[in-house]
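Incident log, support desk, overnight shift.

02:14 A customer reports that sequence design results differ from what the structure should imply. Their input is reproduced verbatim below. On-call engineer (initials T.W.) acknowledged and began investigating.
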């Protein structure tokens, strides 16, 4: 689930949502350092707590991450009010944690609340809404609620395409996820152009040997296999495997192609 810092990689929504960021490691200050007194400092502390929670969540320390998100949320609601967009960011991040834990009812409640706050603050077509819609779609997809998933991905994609460069990395993510939905529903002719467009964006923005390109190639190979297009499927599996071998020295993709 996107954590208001990314959809499929680093995302510009950091800036729009109060600067919440994540670089794969914990912030420099430990939790015990958050003892500022002024309102502004308290808000900064809350943002640092949020970032630290992101780090713990990324590392799989979910109980500690939840505690930090909740501390951050309490501070932000007290200092900024319950309807501030920065509050919405932490709500979305906590929802992503609950989804990771399979706590779907709680995750949905927070996602919906986050979207309500964002729409009230920014309007229905803001980039932040695209992330919130994307997150809710992922949550419903995990629960098999496909009828509710498609309109959310489509709305998110429409916002992204109107606000970002058409070859932005984040658009590739939503294209891929919508294509994946169509693939599961055996809507192969609808999935193919979305997978192809996602692949083209990834190759241009991340380079032909990026792991995300390998994943995209693998998705298309699966699709072609389902359609009985064996020659195309094998070619895409092989290229995906070659990228993975460069990256990791081995691959689990397409055992038949080894």
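02:41 Re-run completed on a clean worker. Output:
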């Amino acid at each position: 689930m996107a954590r208001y810092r990314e959809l499929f990689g680093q995302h510009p929504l950091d800036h729009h949502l109060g600067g919440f960021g994540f670089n794969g490691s914990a912030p420099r200050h430990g939790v015990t350092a958050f003892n500022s007194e002024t309102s502004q400092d308290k808000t900064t502390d809350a943002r640092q707590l949020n970032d630290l929670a992101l780090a713990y969540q990324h590392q799989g320390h979910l109980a500690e991450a939840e505690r930090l998100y909740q501390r951050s949320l309490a501070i932000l609601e007290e200092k900024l009010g319950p309807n501030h967009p920065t509050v919405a960011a932490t709500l979305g991040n906590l929802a992503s944690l609950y989804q990771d834990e399979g706590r779907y009812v709680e995750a949905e409640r927070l996602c919906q609340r986050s979207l309500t706050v964002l729409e009230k603050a920014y309007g229905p077509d803001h980039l932040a809404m695209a992330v919130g819609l994307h997150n809710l779609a992922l949550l419903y997809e995990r629960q098999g609620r496909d009828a509710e998933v498609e309109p959310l991905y489509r709305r998110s994609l429409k916002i992204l395409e109107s606000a970002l460069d058409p070859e932005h990395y984040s658009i590739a993510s939503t294209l891929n996820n919508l294509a994946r939905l169509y693939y599961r529903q055996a809507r192969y002719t609808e999935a193919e152009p979305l997978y192809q467009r996602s692949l083209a964006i990834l190759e241009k923005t991340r380079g032909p040997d990026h792991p995300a390109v390998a994943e995209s190639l693998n998705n298309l190979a699966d699709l072609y296999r389902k359609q009985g297009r064996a020659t195309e499927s094998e070619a895409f599996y092989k290229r995906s495997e070659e990228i993975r071998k460069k990256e990791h020295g081995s691959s689990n993709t397409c055992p038949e192609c080894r």
